[in-house]
Amino acid sequence: MRKASADARPGRAQLAIWHIVILGIVFAIWYGITTPGLVSETYANKIAFFFGRPLQVVKVVIDWFTSGKIYPHLAITLWETLLAFAIGSLLGLAVGLWLALTPTASAIAEPYITAMNAMPRVILAPIFAVWFGLGVLSKVALGVTLVFFIVFFNVYQGVKEVSPVVLANARMLGASRRQLLRSIYLPSATSWVFSSLHTSVGMAFVGAVVGEYLGSAKGVGYLILQAEGVFDINTVIAGIVVLTIFALILDFIVTKIEGRLLVWRPRAAETEAL
Amino acid sequence: MAFAPAFSSASAGAAALALERVTCAFAGKATGERYTAVSDASIVVQPGEFVSVVGPTGCGKSTLLNVAAGLLAPSSGRTLVSGAPLAGINARAGYMFQSDALMPWRNALDNVVAGLEFRGVARAQAVDRAREWLVRVGLAGFEDRYPHQLSGGMRKRVALAQMLILDPEILLMDEPFSALDIQTRQLMENELLDLWAANRKSVLFITHDLEEAIALSDRVVVLSAGPATHPIGEFPIDLPRPRDVAEIRLSPRFVELHEAIWHVLKSEVLKGYAQGKR
Known about the structure:
The structure holds 2 protein chains of 2 kinds. Chain A is an all-alpha fold. Chain A contains 12 helices and 2 strands, in the order βααααααααααααβ.
């Protein structure tokens, strides 16, 4: 497969240079206003109190990884993310399929679903802390409530938008109700789930970190909470940097998986190399 | 010029497929008004016979076919399959749809396998037969392509193989080639005739293209303009077989038949057009 080269856009190398330059400028400004010299020492210290110092932040990050102090926390956060994503997706898929295929049940459930979706669910975190304690479970529960609705709505939509012709064709080919579910509804619904994978993985991550931040004994969110307690802004920002990097890595993995699973989806301007 | 009366009511029990006085009324969603798409329509297809149904666009041709397939229950009237009243899906029929009906998430091979899979045929055996059918419709080497990677004509071939692998006694075809360009279309029509000649099925073929209907069929049924569509004419096509759809159009008998049928169809097309404009 080969994509038509988009000549209108700047080349890969050129783009990378731009990305690095912009990042460099941001760091330079940050460094400039928090270091005595360009601004007076009092001001530099005041600004550094709120924004931290870039070199200190980098030092904290490097220290975390070289001393290995971060690994157990990171492992916990990623584990919570994974669990929240898996459980939320499975629940969303099951409930979405069920409600989409039973009009009566969906009519009854509709106002509740709307209400629960409209509710700012992060606020459930304290309740979950009471129910499930300060360990992994309460974070997973929060993540599940966030992931569930994204997956649920996508599955519901996916089932509703199954082409009636494809459906009629499968029935003419002799598919039973159960076979229709397996061969038509499920693939159609999962394709919608995959297309919302980026959002749902991101939400699972949010659930884990916010849960940790609101009360925990482990995890990157906990590190940030501890540092904030002693006004150690450098460590707070280091935590944010680590979280951002891992969010990007998760996103990259999702993109790869998506490409694998959705080969049957047409992509724009795809031509065959001869 | 053979002009038979609207219908020769169900001849004996031997017909492969018989629609008997079928009426389909739909409740209008917004107004609550009833819309009668098909009214008192009877069509008979004898075993091994190729029957085409022509009519103006939007006259309810597909509705008739859906009734024959068992996808739609008529408001009144009934469908007989080899003399037995039809209830539920018509298991003896294969249906080829006007628009793409392939499962986009399955490649060509798995789409053709589908019907056998639903019937619980062992995977290995089903795959072997599907490969054979893909060869027969000229798609060897395209087994692992997904529908979006195939051209319109290729998708129709896959759909044809998907239907024929189940060896249905009756083929229901709803303008299957209408989306194809004229060259591909004639190729597909010839291929359909070859496949049909090899193993004579009863065919009910819906089209709005009169030339296609005459070139393919043993008999052409003309429908009136909607609403309340019903057959208004029946013409046996006595052209010799085997036929080449491109060449037969030039024969004098073809032109004669075309003229005769068009004479009946024309006023209905104009009626349909006038309704469309309103």
